[in-house]
Design a protein that fits this description.
Elements (H helix, E strand, L loop, with lengths): L2 E5 L3 E2 L5 E8 L8 E6 L6 E6 L5 E3 L7 E6 L4 E6 L8 E8 L12 E4 L3 E5 L2
Parallel strand pairs: 2-11
Antiparallel strand pairs: 1-3, 3-8, 4-5, 4-9, 5-6, 7-8, 9-10, 9-11
């Protein structure tokens, strides 16, 4: 049974770094690619980036300068860091497992397992 459990703070101050962890159980993370997707209030989902089975990373051009995705294979975890956050980064953040090919988009059909979502609010 594949499970993705997200952890991290729900409140981050402007200019600080948002850091979320996705702990995976049931599969070994280096056999798949994993994405981070977010959904701001009242808006559609936005693909942020991904890490593949070799550890290579891919980022949305609009977020590339502020985003870092990494993995810890010993803990079976994927981590998202987003630096210099502003209130516009307020969103529900999700980790998701790609169901096949690497897909640089949020379309649900491209992912077969999702974390529970983390509401992150950026506010002082």
């Amino acid at each position: 049974q594949v499970q993705l459990r997200q952890s991290g703070p729900g409140l981050v101050k402007p200019s600080q770094t948002l850091s979320l962890t996705c702990t995976v159980s049931g599969v070994v993370i280096n056999n798949y690619y994993w994405s981070w997707i977010r959904q701001p209030p009242g808006k559609g989902q936005e693909w942020m980036g991904a890490i593949d089975y070799s550890g290579s990373t891919y980022y949305s051009p609009s977020l590339k300068s502020r985003t870092s995705i990494s993995r810890d294979t010993s803990k079976n975890q994927i981590t998202l860091q987003l630096t210099s956050v502003t209130p516009e980064d307020t969103a529900v953040y999700y980790c998701a497992r790609g169901s096949g090919r690497l897909w640089k988009g949020p379309e649900a059909s491209e992912y077969d397992y999702w974390g529970q979502g983390t509401q992150v609010t950026v506010s002082s």
